[in-house]
Design goal:
Elements: H1 2-15, H2 18-31, H3 35-51, H4 55-65, H5 75-94, H6 99-115, H7 117-134, H8 138-151, H9 156-168, H10 172-192
Amino acid sequence: VEAAYDGLIEAYGALGADENRLRVLRRKRDFVDSILEKFRLSVQEAEILHALGETKEMLDVLARTLPLAEVTDEPAWREARDQFAEEAAFIANEQEDGSAGINLLRALAAMEAKGAPSQALRRYNQASALAENRFSDTRLAVELLEEARLLEPTDPDTIANLDRILDATEQYPKKVALLRDLADLALASKQEE
């Protein structure tokens, strides 16, 4: 039965019949037992809705899908969460203020913080870049990077991004605090040796 669904989804995709592809995909998602497969199919649903220009419905699907995510280092789940993040970034880029997509990335990062910290750091940095570059919201960009630092205070990408934004926006008191914190962490690390 699963192979029949897959064949229909592929055929409708090849024909460009996205509405039919969406209908079959939703039926398959209701049929499968695997949480990973349900998650993947929901992300595919979001992709199709994006192609159809149904941004609000796409956002609803992603918001309902996020709680299904399992935070493991298993490659299949890492890949599925990466695909989810890609769709969240798409929605952030297409919205006027991008907040919904950025919030999805932030929520995914918070989920991944314990089980997949390197992915969580990437999500925080990705959300920060969207906030800064697409929406000129440096306050939110800094906030997201500060959340990333709570996870890994010395992550080089996070530090570089935070330092750059603080310089560009002339937030010198925050920059001084960042440099003090990094110096304290380096000193503490050296004393532990």
